[in-house]
Design goal:
Number of domains: 1
Distance between the termini: 28 Å
Oligomer: single chain
Structural class: alpha+beta
Order of helices and strands: HHEEEEHHHHEE
Shape: globular
Number of helices: 6
Strand content: 5-15%
Number of strands: 6
Radius of gyration: 15 Å
């Protein structure tokens, strides 16, 4: 694959390029809580039930929407509206005209670089399968980007 991310906008990318742009951080898979009064979003260190927390990969990517009702598909139409995405998100970076970081596998050549750099969720999250709904607020974290 050529360096498509350097020559194309998000809108110009085909589906395989779009999927390849994902850095695999899994931060979009964090459970988020919303304050109904202020609409403020709070991140937790709890991940979607489908996320394999060791690999940071969805265990049912093609069928995730039938299992997780509120799973959001990132696309060219909503990427600018999702303010909760981290500043390091490859889609946000490209949308803002920024380069991909050195740890992105399209740059480094290895999908493990993101984990060794510490830019993924690997090693610091728990699955929502292991957290009671009553305890989710105890898992609110401050987003560090």
């Amino acid at each position: 694959m050529d360096n498509f991310w350097q020559t194309k906008t998000l809108e110009q990318m085909d589906s395989s390029e779009w999927e390849a742009l994902c850095d695999g951080c899994a931060k979009c898979c964090l459970v988020k809580l919303e304050d109904h009064d202020s609409a403020e979003i709070f991140h937790t260190n709890v991940t979607c039930e489908l996320l394999d927390i060791k690999s940071c990969q969805c265990s049912n990517y093609s069928g995730r929407h039938s299992v997780v009702n509120d799973c959001i598909t990132l696309d060219q139409n909503n990427i600018h509206a999702l303010s909760w995405l981290p500043k390091s998100c490859s889609y946000r970076l490209i949308a803002d005209g920024q380069p991909l970081p050195d740890w992105h596998y399209l740059v480094s050549g290895s999908k493990q670089t993101i984990h060794s750099y510490g830019a993924s969720l690997q090693g610091w999250v728990v699955s929502e399968l292991d957290v009671s709904d009553d305890d989710i607020e105890d898992h609110i974290i401050r987003w560090v980007d």
